[in-house]
Amino acid sequence: MTSRIPAAIATCALSLGALASGAGVAAAAPPTPAAGDAPSRQSAVDARAAAVDRCSYQVVRSDDSRYVYSVSGVFGDGARELTPQKEDDVRVSGDWRKVVQVDVCAGGRDQAPTALRVTGKLDRPEGYDPSVPRTIHSNDLKPAASSVIPKAPELTSVDRLDAATVRVTWKPAQGNPDQVVLMERKPFYSSEVGVWHPYTFQWDVQTGATSMDRKLERDADIPPAARAHSYSMRVINGGFVSDLRAEKPVTVEP
Length: 254
Hints:
Layout: H1 5-19, E1 25-26, E2 47-51, E3 56-61, E4 67-75, E5 78-81, E6 83-92, E7 95-103, E8 115-122, E9 135-137, E10 155-162, E11 165-170, E12 179-190, E13 195-204, E14 211-215, E15 229-237, E16 240-241, E17 250-252
Antiparallel strand pairs: 1-13, 2-3, 3-7, 4-5, 4-8, 6-7, 8-9, 10-11, 11-14, 12-13, 12-15, 15-16, 15-17
């Protein structure tokens, strides 16, 4: 039973995402492709990069879940792999992308990279036909200035309207971003295996809106460790995402 839980959870989450049209989209990554469809897959990594601040850089890339990825920085003395700070799956203009933020100052270094590179290495290559590339790369990415990283609005309150409903309120978004997103982490029920577990949803906010009402999951079978609900804000603009490290979720108990 245990080995079936991750696959079942992913299947249920993707089904929920398909049903959530209009209100938002469940934040689930695309399913892993089967080995047999490898010839039709793109062998390169589609990516873009920007500085978040002096030490943090954001890379927004395509994701083929058969591969394990790393980000390297190109410096005057060569290239070196960078330390990840935070990453997440984000739906950007209708497409799922992986957003990764890396630290170029780890180890006491203080030099800005001239370019960033993404490398993907095939996980468990023995399970794939030899025609499937063992390593894939992005082009060298010249980081854009930090000004392209949007700023998420501050979440101001989570107020209980009744026993099963909260109203999440935030300040107006700055500028005119492509997407303002409410992130909601709450219990999710996988009906196939009968398991409640924490799951994160991405809800697109209507233009100009500064609040959204959300229902609390209050089923008696939810285990205590999975009962909490948390909310935070995120902004997407020009293909880049607000600083993932700056998200400060507000948590409420049902």
